[in-house]
Amino acid sequence: MSDSQYNGSWLCIRLYTVKTYEIKSFIEEGGIKVFLPEEYRVKEDADGHRTRSLVPVVRNLLFVYVDNNFDIIRGKVGDSRYRIAFITPSPAVRTPARISDAEMQEFIQMCNPDIEDKLFVTHDEVKLKAGDMVIVDRGPLKGITGRLIRKAKKYYLLKEAGPMAVLLKVTKWTCRKMEE
After folding, report:
1. Beta-bridge mates of residue 166
2. Which of 82, 98, 137, 142 is packed most tightly, with the most Cβ within 10 A?
3. What phi and psi values does residue 67 have, to the nearest 5 degrees?
4. Among 88-97, 108-117, 121-130, 140-149, which stretch is predicted with the lowest mean pLDDT?
5. What 3-state DSSP class applies to 103?
6. What gap in Å lies between CA 169 and CA 173, rounded to an integer?
7. Torsion-angle region of residue 130: left (phi > 0), alpha (psi -120 to 50) or beta?
8. What's the CA gap between 149 and 111, in Å, rounded?
9. In whole angstroms, what is the distance from residue 161 CA to residue 168 CA?
């Protein structure tokens, strides 16, 4: 299925194990679309050889796509031999937090491991950042919306998805403030 055929929403799943790729494969076997934010890390072995490999940004989070039938996901997760929980908007709420497909597609695009100047931050760090809502008008990120924030004398586009967020370095002049 192409990404344009998805018009549902995404849920964030917390994993209580470090077997991230094993759980991702288990969920995908059920025909469920899964996104795992990854980045490149360089490791050096005992002989001094360096290898670059993809690793999860956060080892205990997965994003899963759901259409209107949430029971399929709940059943697949319930059948799992792993301890898994859905992220909720607050501790008092029992239903999972939903992320719109449009927002998630922008988040996935910004998490591309080939893009170098980006930072991953937690939801708590995001709350401390003030910034204007902007839309990118030029360049490879054209059309993406987010908050323009300043950190360490550089400008970043902030995009949140569940309990994590990505900061992608942008130049201020490529962004236009959105009307409220």
Report:
1. 120, 159
2. 98
3. -95, -145
4. 121-130
5. helix
6. 12
7. beta
8. 17
9. 14
